[in-house]
Write a structure and sequence with these properties.
Helix content: 25-40%
Largest sheet: 3 strands, mixed
CATH architecture: 2-Layer Sandwich
Distance between the termini: 29 Å
CATH topology: GMP Synthetase, Chain A, domain 3
Strand order of the largest sheet: 1-2-3
Shape: globular
Radius of gyration: 13 Å
Number of domains: 1
Number of helices: 4
Number of strands: 3
Length: 94
């Protein structure tokens, strides 16, 4: 994905996502946007989470994010979520 201008309403959509991530100490950062496919790349940030495994798990988290973001930014048709719990040895135990 290339650094294209963000879709209209993305900030409001991310704020909506932060409402349900915030209580667990998690956050989300956009890392890419592909206007041709309507896909938004996001990174789940868990540095502030006391209990990373308590944050909503995938794939439910991706679906919730897409719903919240698309409500404000209808151009977003899909979300590719980089969830460190799936790849980072600190979270996976490998």
């Amino acid at each position: 994905m290339t650094p294209e201008p963000s879709p209209t309403g993305l900030d409001a959509g991310l704020d909506a996502v932060r409402v349900f991530l915030g209580p667990d100490g998690a956050d989300v950062t956009p890392t890419g946007w592909d206007p041709a496919s309507g896909r938004l790349a996001l990174r789940l940030e868990l540095a502030g989470a006391e209990c990373p495994e308590c944050v909503i798990p995938q794939p439910m988290l991706g679906e919730l994010m897409l719903g919240a973001i698309a409500e404000h930014a209808p151009e977003v048709q899909g979300v590719d979520l980089d969830d460190p719990r799936e790849t980072d040895p600190a979270f996976t135990g490998h």
